[in-house]
Amino acid sequence: MNSRLLFVAAATLLLTIATTLAQPEPVVPITRNQHPHSWYAEQSRLWQEVVSKEPTNAPAWFNYFLATRYVRITSWNHSEYNQANYQDLGNIVAQMEKHIPNSFEFHYASFYYVDDIAQHNRHLFRAHQIAPDRVDIYPHLLVTHELNQDQKRATVIAKKYDQSGHASPSLLDWNYNMLAPLAEDAILFVNGDNDSYPKWILQYARGMRPDVVVIEVGMLYIDDFRTKVLKRIGLPSFPGEETYPDFTDFIRAFFRHAIQHSKRPLYFATTLYQKYTSKISNDLYNEGLALRYRAQSYDNLKVQADNFEKYFRLDYLQVDDIDDVSKGIVNRLDLNYLYSFADLYKYYLTNGNLTQATKVKNLLNAIAGRGGNPEAVNFVEECLAEQQ
Fold first, then answer.
1. Residue-wise pLDDT tens digits, 31-71
2. Are 158 and 204 in contact (CB under 8 A)?
3. Would you tell me the crossing angle of helices 104-113 and 58-73 to the nearest 10 degrees?
4. CA 123, CA 110: separation in Å to the nearest integer?
5. How large is the C-alpha radius of gyration of the chain?
6. Largest interatomic CA distance in the chain
């Protein structure tokens, strides 16, 4: 056998072994731990093979559904997968209804899939009724109770989730550092799951900062929620998203509405898309992980320093080997500290506080190093070089 044939035979053998050894792995919500696109594509294929052989295997069906759903979410080109992937998900849910119709997994997958809010909630509550101790559904229940502005039920589920130990400690610390320093009776606008429900756990389960109203901006398009939360914070009514060209214009207008009518301190999470706050950016001042709206300038560097020294939980930022399923998610969220910490580093050097300057410098290097973002590393290197 010549060398070319030997190479082909060896490559074929290796591919066969790799395919044989490939095993399906549990797929957890992407908000807890995110994998590369290729991993989800492989898991979708592997779990499809399992359900084809074991059509009543409910956990396998749910892993197949989640992996297939995350194939689109992690794609660089979402539009490439949108229609085909949605059809695939619909087919999976239809097959789940056929083979495991009364299962937790079917109703949980249907909750993810359906668009109608009433059906959305029906499947969520039915899943919880079937398996009340399944903690992976608790964040969704918490969000739903918050949508309904039902603080009583939100408190019950937040305490259950907190007591389960399932919530990421690092994610709670990150959210604590945004929530703790805010002015009394503040309104805080946030963006997404990991920027919202951990704060509600801190508020409802641990009694932290109940005076602050945390508003996840994606919820504002829902008329019932918007009406209730506006009443809660004492603002006049505001028209729905359909009256604006797109969601960005809607959010910008809502922010202007809050600025015009609210007497409460207004904060905007650093995780918000900049396009949402671009029209008011000249009046936003960084205080750490949140930007405060103020019509008149003030010494926000002093506020940042006070927050850093008096409020921030820094221990989790100084440890590289944290045993936390959401470590990758938190490492990326931690990049939101960089602009504030860069300002603090210069501030402490200018004021001759070398102890604090060194602490901040070490944190800048650690955060940038773990964040997996070359631009963040370059930003920190340039920041530190400027002060040499």
1. 888 899 999 999 999 999 999 999 999 999 999 999 999 99
2. yes
3. 20
4. 6
5. 24
6. 84
Q: Over pLDDT 70: what percentage of the chain?
A: 91
Name the H helices within the chain: 3-21, 37-53, 58-73, 78-99, 104-113, 117-130, 138-147, 151-164, 169-179, 197-200, 223-232, 247-261, 274-277, 300-310, 327-333, 338-350, 354-370, 374-386
Does residue 18 have a pLDDT over 50? no
Query: Which amino acid does the sequence have at 115?
Result: D
Residue type, 240: G
In this structure, are residues 105 and 67 in contact, taking their beta carbons and an 8 Å threshold? no
What order do you get walking across the sheet with 290-293 strand by strand?
A: 213-216, 187-190, 266-269, 290-293, 284-286
The values of phi and psi at residue 14, to 5°, are -65, -40
Tokens of 67: 């992996």
Which pLDDT belongs to residue 2?
A: 53
All structural domains of the chain, each given as residue ranges with its CATH number in brackets, are: 22-132 (1.25.40), 139-305 (no CATH), 314-388 (no CATH)
* Phi-psi label, residue 209: left if phi above 0, alpha if psi -120 to 50, beta otherwise: left
- Alpha helices of 134-262 — where are they, by DSSP H? 138-147, 151-164, 169-179, 197-200, 223-232, 247-261
pLDDT surpassing 80 at residue 291 = yes
Are 205 and 158 spatial neighbours (Cβ–Cβ below 8 Å)? yes
Are the C-beta atoms of 269 and 190 separated by less than 8 Å?
yes
pTM, full prediction: 0.89
| Lowest-confidence region among 114-118, 155-159, 321-325 | 321-325
